[in-house]
Amino acid sequence: MNWHRIEGNWKQHQGKIVERWDKLTHDDLDRTQGRREQFEGQLREAYGISRDQAKKDVDEFCKSLCAPDA
């Protein structure tokens, strides 16, 4: 799954995102409105990770949504 699909169904994916990154709230996610760069920025701020790590984590999350058991 690519980010455009996640962004297009942002409200539907928020539960899984909050499960994965529990330091983020639904309010945090509402502020990003599904925009990947803002979302990665929130991850960097909340978890103290690098830009590259945030991008890698989001890429892995996108792939996990495609998994048969997702």
Overview of the molecule:
This protein has helices at residues 3-8, 10-20, 26-32, 36-47, 51-66. It has 70 residues and is mostly helical. The protein has a single domain (3-66), classed as YjbJ (Protein Yjbj, Chain: A, Orthogonal Bundle), CATH 1.10.1470.10. The mean pLDDT is 91.
List the keywords.
single chain; 70 residues; mainly alpha; Protein Yjbj, Chain: A; 74% helix
Topology:
Layout: H1 3-8, H2 10-20, H3 26-32, H4 36-47, H5 51-66
Helix pairs in contact: 4-5
**Second CATH tier, the architecture:** Orthogonal Bundle
CATH superfamily: YjbJ
Number of helices: 5
- Percentage beta strand: under 5%
Q: TL;DR?
A:
The protein has 70 residues and is an all-alpha fold.
